[in-house]
Amino acid sequence: MLSPLDMLVIGGAALLFFGPDQLPGVARKVGSVVRELQMTSQSFIREMERAADEAEMAKDAQNVPPDVEDLPPIEYDTESAPPVGEHPKETRPESAPR
After folding, report:
1. Tens digits of per-residue pLDDT, 8-49?
2. Boundaries of domain holding 50
3. What is the pLDDT of residue 25?
4. Is residue 24 domain-resident?
5. Is residue 89 assigned to a domain?
6. pLDDT over 80 (residue 89)
7. 60 exposed, middle or buried (CB, 10 Å; 0-12, 13-18, 19+)?
8. Looking at the 3D structure of the chain, how many domains does it have?
9. Fewest 10 Å CB contacts: which of 24, 25, 42, 64?
10. Rounded distance, CA 39 to CA 58, Å?
11. Is the residue at 26 inside a domain?
């Protein structure tokens, strides 16, 4: 940031360099260039924030579990399964107490 003394020195130098007739036009041109630079900078920042938000949303979308409808059907092995109503025999080691 410029101090008041710095602005006074710059203003005096501009007055000597451009003269009193051209100074208002030069000041308007400098103001419009600075305004355009600020708008471009703000636009760039907004675009970068939007891109970062989209990237974060895409990353979060990869961590979402699939819907039940999207899951493949479960296949059961019916040949090795016991018949309905029967339970498989208990298998305990010989040394296990009853």
Report:
1. 999 899 999 989 899 999 999 999 999 999 999 999 999 999
2. 34-62
3. 93
4. no
5. no
6. no
7. exposed
8. 1
9. 64
10. 29
11. no
